[in-house]
């Protein structure tokens, strides 16, 4: 087995791919879902996605000369965001204090659950798209990129969104 195969077929990698695919599939099938059911399910998937990302083995890009293929277009993102915003309705927005802009503002920064979930979806779906193609080198690089994006971007977005979803589910009902 080639060196890039070793990491991508490791148990923790396979489990991350599984949960990531479940997250994408769930969000793609939410049309018409009631907010209570949606929030309840997302509150179960997000922590699992976070834990599985934490358990990934440390990895680096093998070949960064090629740009990774993407699946999520601006239109796909906008549609996903709109569907999620529709489900969340008047409970979509929340105040976020873990943003860089907060250092320079005396006003709270408003974020949206739908946008956070769509942002995570975009990164995860692009990763799953490349992974499904089955080319070991590309799979390895997609996993390494997804791991790096988790550390720098969507991991924080996930926990912030999770906090807001927790409030929707348990506080002010």
Describe the fold and architecture.
The chain is mainly alpha-helical and 173 residues long. The chain has one domain: Four Helix Bundle (Hemerythrin (Met), subunit A) (Up-down Bundle). Helix content is 66%, strand content 5%. The protein has 6 helices and 2 strands; from the N terminus they run H-H-H-H-E-E-H-H. A two-stranded antiparallel sheet has the order 1-2. Helix 2 packs across helix 5, helix 4 (74-88) crosses helix 5 and helix 5 packs antiparallel against helix 6 (136-170). It is globular.
What is the topological layout?
Layout: H1 3-8, H2 11-28, H3 35-54, H4 74-88, E1 93-96, E2 109-112, H5 113-132, H6 136-170
Antiparallel strand pairs: 1-2
Radius of gyration: 17 Å
Biggest sheet layout: 2 strands, antiparallel
Strand order of the largest sheet: 1-2
- How many structurally independent domains? 1
Strand content is under 5%
Helix count equals 6
CATH topology: Four Helix Bundle (Hemerythrin (Met), subunit A)
User: Could you state the CATH homologous superfamily?
Assistant: Protein of unknown function DUF5063
In short:
This protein is mostly helical. 66% of the residues lie in helices and 5% in strands.
List keywords for this structure.
173 residues; mainly alpha; Four Helix Bundle (Hemerythrin (Met), subunit A); two-stranded antiparallel ribbon; 6 helices; 66% helix; globular
């Amino acid at each position: 087995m080639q060196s890039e195969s070793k990491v991508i077929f490791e148990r923790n990698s396979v489990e991350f791919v599984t949960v990531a695919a479940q997250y994408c599939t769930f969000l793609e099938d939410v049309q018409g879902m009631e907010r209570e059911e949606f929030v309840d399910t997302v509150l179960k998937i997000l922590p699992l996605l976070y834990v599985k990302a934490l358990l990934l083995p440390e990895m680096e890009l093998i070949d960064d000369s090629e740009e990774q293929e993407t699946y999520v277009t601006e239109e796909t993102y906008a549609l996903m965001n709109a569907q999620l915003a529709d489900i969340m309705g008047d409970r979509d927005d929340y105040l976020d204090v873990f943003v860089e802009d907060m250092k320079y503002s005396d006003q709270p920064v408003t974020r949206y659950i739908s946008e956070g979930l769509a942002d995570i979806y975009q990164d995860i779906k692009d990763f799953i798209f490349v992974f499904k193609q089955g080319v070991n080198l590309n799979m390895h690089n997609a996993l390494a990129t997804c791991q790096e994006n988790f550390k720098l971007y969507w991991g924080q977005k996930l926990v912030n969104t999770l906090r807001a979803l927790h409030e929707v589910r348990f506080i002010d009902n």
